[in-house]
Amino acid sequence: MKILVTGANGYLGRGIVESLAKLGQEIVATDISTEGIVELDNINKVEADLFNLDDPYTFFGSPDIMLHLAWRDGFVHNSKAHLEDLSKHMLFLDKMFNSKIKKISVMGSMHEVGFYEGSVDENTETNPMTYYGIAKDALRKYVIQEGQEKSKDYQWLRAYYIVGNTSGGSSIFSKIVEAERKKQKLFPFTTGVNQYDFLDYGEFTHRIAITLVQNTVLGVINVCSGQPMRLSERVENFIQENGFDIKLEYGAFPDRKYDSKAMWGNSEKMERILSEFNNNGGIS
Question: In terms of pTM, does the model score above 0.90?
Answer without folding.
Answer: yes
